Q: What sequence folds into this?
């Protein structure tokens, strides 16, 4: 007769878990994102020539290993310095120059010009020093037998992962000229959309900054002159005037707080947004719900998502790889999480739009059109149409917001400045009334 305890042990031996439990546990494990940095490297080739370049890697040791695999002897590897507040810059090459270069490269490759000769002509024809340096760097990689994608991968601040993955697909499929042309169109549209969104955010920020500067100058330099004049009268000042003078005295005595607080607040916000996932998630969620700016940010994110999806599908990139890339280029944690859930549904045999509908972040129109694309096998076409629609919506929304914000901000500025003027002239009016009454 079998012993019940032994049966239980044989059924579930120590250290073992059921398949369902393992799947359930892995389902809740969030993949760890490996943080990479940009490095500048100098190395010697076999012919003792010195080569230089940039590489994105986890550490300088990884860069040295990669260089040795390519037959290069590392001389120096150092992390590339970042811009103000740790924000990476473009290094003197505008996005428009990159788009023109990609279009020219597409035309030359379509004409049958070898890749090495293409970059030689591009480097000799450009006048931008940073652009010329980058093109010559890619050319050196091509001369050692590497692919265009490998050369461009050394400059991640100009060519992101999406760009490199599509270039690789184009080189492997023999349709590099077509891929380059589509990438040029994609980056042109993205650049135009970014400018619209930036202008939508820059205009009110610039007006508010000017308003703060004007008010601060009045409070620190102009109001004390009136306060000194009023103190010589020895009369009791109106409540509004006295309150403005007290605030002016405090700002004059603590000017370093007035100047340093906004700068410190901006720096801390950027630092926390870049380093703290919980803070970034909260900010991204709130930003999508802002009264006027929120719909613009959401529409621009949807336009970027669908445009990238259409471009990757047209290049033949598998939907699983496309969704993983799309989650990284969304620039919003909330949308990134929604896309990753959609990718999980696709892995389980479901549809991409199921999770997007359930999350409620994407508008119904966008999910319906993408769903039709999934059913008919024309997701590339439907995603492109959705992108066209929302890009137009962003442009119209930005124009409407600019038209709406201008009078509102001017009214607010007028009220603040008008209040200061009235506060300073009230004692003068009172003195004039006393003199007139006494006369």
A:
């Amino acid at each position: 007769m079998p012993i019940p305890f032994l049966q239980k042990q044989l059924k579930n031996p120590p250290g073992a878990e059921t398949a369902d439990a393992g799947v359930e546990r892995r389902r809740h494990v969030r993949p760890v994102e490996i943080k990479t940095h940009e490095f500048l490297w100098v190395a010697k080739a076999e012919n003792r020539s010195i080569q230089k370049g940039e590489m994105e890697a986890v550490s300088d040791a990884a860069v040295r290993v990669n260089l040795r695999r390519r037959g290069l002897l590392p001389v120096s590897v150092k992390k590339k310095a970042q811009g103000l507040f740790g924000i990476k810059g473009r290094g003197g090459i505008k996005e428009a120059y990159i788009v023109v270069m990609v279009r020219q490269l597409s035309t030359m490759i379509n004409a049958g010009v070898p890749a090495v000769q293409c970059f030689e002509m591009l480097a000799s024809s450009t006048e931008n020093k940073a652009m010329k340096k980058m093109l010559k760097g890619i050319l050196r990689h091509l001369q050692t037998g590497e692919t265009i994608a490998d050369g461009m991968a050394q400059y991640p601040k100009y060519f992101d992962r999406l760009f490199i993955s599509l270039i690789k697909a184009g080189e492997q499929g023999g349709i590099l000229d077509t891929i380059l042309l589509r990438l040029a169109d994609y980056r042109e549209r993205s650049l135009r959309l970014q400018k619209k969104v930036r202008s939508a955010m820059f205009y009110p920020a610039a007006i508010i900054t000017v308003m703060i500067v004007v008010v601060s100058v009045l409070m620190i330099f102009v109001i004390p002159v009136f306060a000194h004049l009023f103190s010589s009268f020895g009369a009791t000042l109106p409540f509004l005037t006295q309150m403005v003078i007290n605030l002016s005295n405090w700002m004059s005595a603590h000017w370093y707080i007035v100047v340093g607080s906004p700068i410190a607040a901006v720096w801390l916000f950027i630092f926390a947004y870049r380093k703290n996932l919980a803070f970034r998630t909260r900010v991204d969620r709130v930003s999508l719900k802002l009264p006027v700016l929120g719909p613009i940010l959401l529409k621009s994110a949807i336009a970027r998502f669908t445009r990238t999806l259409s471009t990757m599908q047209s290049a033949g990139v598998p939907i699983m790889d496309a969704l993983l890339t799309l989650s990284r280029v969304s620039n919003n944690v909330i949308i990134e999480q929604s896309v990753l859930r959609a990718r999980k549904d696709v892995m389980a045999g479901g549809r991409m739009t199921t999770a997007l509908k359930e999350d409620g972040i994407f508008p119904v129109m966008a999910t319906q059109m993408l769903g039709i694309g999934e059913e008919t096998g024309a997701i590339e076409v439907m995603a492109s149409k959705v992108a066209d629609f929302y890009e137009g919506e962003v442009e119209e929304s930005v124009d409407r917001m600019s038209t709406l914000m201008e009078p509102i901000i001017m009214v607010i500025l007028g009220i603040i400045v008008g209040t200061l003027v009235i506060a300073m002239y009230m004692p003068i009016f009172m003195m004039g009334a006393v003199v007139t009454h006494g006369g």
Remarks:
- Confidence is low (pLDDT under 50) at residues 1-34, 82-91.
- The longest strand covers residues 37-44.
